Amino acid sequence: MASITACTNLSDDAKTALAEELEEQQPARGTVYEQALICLRPKIAALDFAKTAVTFGADLIDPDTMELSFLGDKYRITRERIVDNNGKEPVPFISILIYNHLSMPDPPALAGEWITFSSVPASHAKDKAWAGHVEDVIARHFTNNIRGLEQACARLGGVRSDIKGSHDAAYEFLFFPRYPALLQFYDAVPDEDFPAQCRLLLDKTVDKYLDIESIVVLGEEFAGRMTGKV
What we know:
Blueprint: H1 12-24, H2 32-45, H3 49-56, E1 59-62, E2 65-70, E3 73-78, E4 82-83, H4 92-103, E5 114-115, H5 127-141, H6 146-155, E6 159-160, E7 169-176, E8 179-186, E9 197-203, H7 212-227
Antiparallel strand pairs: 1-2, 2-3, 3-4, 5-9, 6-7, 7-8, 8-9
Helix pairs in contact: 2-4, 5-7
């Protein structure tokens, strides 16, 4: 992170020339997220909004505007930008997740079959991130606090699931209208040296609705909201 002008192998003249050149450079091009948004906006602008709204469960407001639910919040998408209910643009990575979702080509109907993240095609490189940054975060935070977990799930629009199993709590969510998730929580059993565990399951078609990197980022955002850290 040091300045190039701090290099001890440079002569004084070279340092002076470099410093002058750096001062003349244009302002920074922005964060990686901001640059990604610049690349994605033309792709979104070219979409058939009427078809896209039907495919992804959005509400078509007019030919150039649709409204989409994301983690329980409503966002309005135009061909130029995304805004929340207050008319403000969300942080860049939220817009990127929405854009990436709407850009997925011809996703199939939901399978109605739950799978673990490790079962998602091409997910092997992100298995540790999913376990450590999503499932383990939720499990540690709600250890011996089932009531707190239930309240957090309800706050984020979760619906209690009647799926059979040995879990202590199970809730279904719609991260997007066409992007369901199932949270299963197993509380700690101290007498048996059993730590709390969380499994966040996804529909078998999840990789057709979002790329792997975005799936992990979305999972991390969900875990942050569950635990009140974002």
